[in-house]
Automatic annotation (TrEMBL):
Protein name: Uncharacterized protein
Length: 72
């Protein structure tokens, strides 16, 4: 499934399996925690999509690199 999340005036698609819809809420909570992290906010501008695998968010950058973030 896919869902769009908004963070800092930017929308990004999040892909996740049907049984992991609760992980999206964990991701939203983690993003609010990192709202004051300037380095993460700079990186957020280059993210093109997010994939949820269990309790890990995999951020895919426009250049093909990935950032893994534990959301639990």
């Amino acid at each position: 499934m896919m869902r769009i999340i908004n963070f800092k005036k930017r929308s990004v698609p999040v892909y996740y399996p049907n049984e992991q819809s609760a992980s999206i809420e964990l991701l939203n909570h983690k993003l609010h925690e990192m709202e004051l992290d300037f380095d993460f906010r700079k990186k957020w501008r280059r993210i093109k999509s997010v994939e949820m695998v269990r309790d890990v968010a995999i951020f895919q950058y426009t250049d093909g690199t990935k950032l893994y973030l534990e959301v639990s």
